[in-house]
Design a protein that fits this description.
The protein is an alpha/beta fold. It has 15 helices and 26 strands. Strands 10, 11, 12, 13, 14, 15 and 26 form a 7-stranded mixed β-sheet that branches. A hairpin with a 5-residue loop joins strand 21 and strand 22. Helix 10 packs parallel to helix 11. The termini are far apart.
Length: about 550
């Protein structure tokens, strides 16, 4: 059963007269009367308010990119429209029209909804739960969101699927080779195979082989930024550390901007199940944990901009005074300003030295194991290289879905993996572990897809060739700090050094660097990108919380 069937009362709560009166105190808008059938908010509309219905009804509908419309529900007096998009100003995933008798409703802007959620514990819990569950129900609905048309398993289609899924946006995939409606649309638009995949947005816009940024703009995922605004805190990276910093900073009244080039959650967001995170005895997926943190940051008013990539951090050099803002230059040429910057860009997946590896990325080689990858390799034999916790979580997730997992590690698992994962893997009947081996070569078929791999024994040097269409690489990560352009001090592996002293070119600030502060005053580093950090989700969250107190100290007058 769907979440909308099992939790309808929580998804569509009804406020009583006392609760309605309490809620109305947070809006400065007058009630508005709508005529029967009048549009109240449109699909994809940015900055749409949430509406509290006082009289009549509002029909809530959704529509996919092929213009297929369906009713979600009919709301009546005492109910709020909206979901998580209304908190962030992003494009709405549903539309609302006044019912057959019209309606009277009062509008709540995003800042007023946040004030209500924070100012009233009872109503705040009710609304946040409803907004989150409404987004979850839309993700479960195969008729909501965008339509992707292409050949499943191709790099660009997999990329778009992952981008939308990880950012909490529903989509439907149609195989151009077998779906008549997909073929018809391709013929109507006159596209070639080089233009695939097509992305048909709910508003009818058709994008040909779009980038993540183009998809984000079409769907309203990427916000309209005020380039003249000076933020108190700019966080670069939307993983656990960055989201924790955003939650704590925004909840304490600081203006916060979070930037990430792919999706919220970072590498942790790709984990199928995290079982040793405090407070979740049955475990939680990385995407679910990141989604909760993302919602929490929006609740307190943090702005989250995805997918935007920072190209360069301009600290102003020796001429900059500590009181002057820092500048973040984006890859699209725009600039943003902040009084402090938190480097939480994490780590990027490490690539082994294998010839032509790049040509198979997205065409058989993956660095994470999401539901998209699991579907593609369902019922087949796969290989997974790596012996850390991320590798172990991926094996446990994939094994029930595939025919066999060949796990290749350089050292015994006891040296690199948590005990609970080792025991879980040992209980899986379709997992074989090869210790003391590495992958050295890949082979493709006539279409360019992976079809085989060569492994070598580290001690014997013996070569083993296996027919293989899916290879997962979990061999560690390198710091994702190239965008810093050597502006802050790093160690010999590229991890950012904190708490060791300011660079001699910087103007004296009359204090020692704070524990999480880099060699540049006002620039902090947390999480996996920081030298000496513990590479665990809980540790990253802790650093995200701790850095906010240090930011307050750095921004306070001496």
């Amino acid at each position: 059963m769907s979440v909308i069937e099992t939790r309808r009362e929580q998804i569509f709560p009804v406020l009583d007269a006392i609760q309605i009166a309490a809620a109305r105190r947070f809006s400065d808008n007058e009630p508005r009367r709508f005529q029967p059938g009048e549009t109240i908010f449109s699909l994809g509309e940015r900055n749409a308010p949430a509406w509290l219905i006082l009289e009549g009804e509002i029909d809530i509908t959704r529509r996919d990119g092929l213009n297929r419309e369906a009713q979600i529900t009919v709301m009546g007096p005492g109910q709020f429209t909206g979901e998580m998009s209304e908190l962030s100003g992003r494009g709405t995933l549903a539309a609302g029209r006044a019912g057959s008798e019209g309606c009277v409703a009062i509008a709540f802007r995003a800042d007023q909804i946040r004030a209500l959620i924070i100012g009233s514990a009872e109503l705040g819990e009710m609304l946040m739960r409803a907004f989150i569950l409404r987004r979850v129900s839309l993700l479960q609905d195969v008729g909501a969101g965008s339509v992707l048309i292409g050949q499943p398993g191709t790099p660009d289609l997999s990329r778009l699927q992952n981008f939308l899924t990880r950012n909490g946006y529903p989509c439907t995939v149609l195989d151009v080779a077998s779906d008549p409606q997909a073929r018809e649309l391709v013929e109507q638009t006159g596209v070639t195979s080089a233009d695939l995949p097509l992305m048909v947005c709910p508003n009818g816009t058709v994008l040909r082989r779009p980038s993540n940024a183009e998809a984000g703009m079409c769907l309203g995922i990427t916000p309209d930024l005020d380039l003249a605004k000076q933020y108190d805190v700019a966080v670069v990276g939307g993983g656990p550390a960055g989201l924790a910093a955003a939650v704590y900073a925004a909840s304490e009244g600081l203006s916060v901007l979070v930037l990430d080039q792919r999706a919220f959650g970072g590498q942790a967001g790709t984990s199928a199940r995290i079982e040793n995170y405090l407070g979740f005895p049955t475990g939680i997926s990385g995407l679910a944990l990141a989604g909760r943190a993302f919602s929490q940051a929006q609740k307190f008013g943090a702005e989250i901009a995805i997918p935007l990539e920072v190209a360069h951090l301009d600290c102003g050099g020796s001429a900059r005074r500590a009181s002057e803002p820092l500048r973040l230059e984006l890859t699209d040429g725009r600039s943003l300003y902040a009084r402090s910057v938190v480097v939480a860009s994490g780590a990027r997946y490490r690539q082994p030295s294998i010839p032509n590896l790049d040509s198979f990325e997205g065409a058989g080689v993956s660095y994470w194991a999401s539901a998209v990858e699991a579907k593609l390799c369902e019922g087949e034999e796969i290989s997974l290289v790596g012996g850390g916790n991320s590798a172990g979580q991926a094996v446990v997730f994939l094994a029930p879905k595939v025919k066999h997992v060949h796990m290749v590690v350089r050292r015994p698992l006891e040296a690199t993996m948590s005990r609970y994962l080792i025991d879980r893997i040992a209980a899986l009947p379709n997992v074989t572990i090869y210790t003391g081996a590495e992958v050295i070569a890949l082979e493709g078929d006539e279409t360019g897809a992976l079809c085989g791999a060569t492994f070598r024994g580290l001690d014997s040097g013996k070569l083993y060739n296996y027919p293989l269409r899916h290879l997962f690489l979990f061999i560690g990560a390198d710091p994702n700090g190239d965008w810093l352009a050597q502006r802050v001090a790093v160690d010999n592996r590229g991890f950012v050094i904190t708490g060791r002293g300011f660079a001699p070119t910087d103007e004296p600030v009359g204090r020692d660097p704070l524990p999480l502060e880099t060699s540049v005053p006002g620039v902090f580093a947390i999480g996996d990108v920081r030298a000496g950090s513990t590479k665990r989700v809980a540790a990253a969250v802790g650093e995200g919380a701790a850095v906010v107190a240090q930011i307050h100290s750095a921004l306070s007058p001496v």
